[in-house]
Specification:
α4 runs parallel beside α5, α5 packs parallel to α6 and α6 runs parallel beside α7. The protein is built from eight helices and no strands. Among the domains are: 81 residues, no CATH class; 39 residues. It is mainly α and 228 residues long. It is elongated and about 100 Å long.
Length: 228
Amino acid sequence: MKFTYWIIIALLVFSATPLQTRAQSRQSPHSQQLSNCLDKFSTCDRSALNVQELQVVRRVAQDHSFLECFNGFSDCDKKQLNTEQQIEIARENRDQNLQNCLDGIGECNLARLSDHERQDVALSARVRNLQGCLDGMGECDATQLTSDQKRQLADANHDRNLQNCLEGLGQCDRTQLSSQEKQDVARATSDRNLQECYEGSNECDRSHLTAMEQRQVADLDAHRKLQN
């Protein structure tokens, strides 16, 4: 890929006589007209330019169009591109379409893909679906999973539920826990409640404390009152 934009600008700055007025406080009318033509957003009178300047303006306009087409901008004018640039844009569009299909994001035209690419896209979709199922986030189509993957999903759901129960966060279904796991969750819940009581939290439930723990919490409360 050849970009001539900055080369052209350098040539204009250092070799084009009209542009050498940059050191002056005001541009000459001709220099201003050339600047307008180089800036596609300004009104341009090409009849005021000489042959060399017209060539430069056309090259700059072509480079602008190439960058707009390459980046997928809506104002892309493919008619201004040469054959090499059109081939480059077509290749970029094809690569972008393939990437969209692989990522499952953006517009994806499967008809533009080869058989091998469609296989890769299908595999990517299966992997993405499995990851979404295992993470418990995003879309998950369990019907697309193999028997082994369904077992992995069941294990992942069980582990996620156990973690929620242990941390006291999120949805917790204790009916899904084993006897040992229920004991672990009860112990974690008791420890968390005791810590909240020690810290004087409003979340403290003293009814779940032992007699010794209640005396310890009462002593801490008395100490805090003395400090205040």
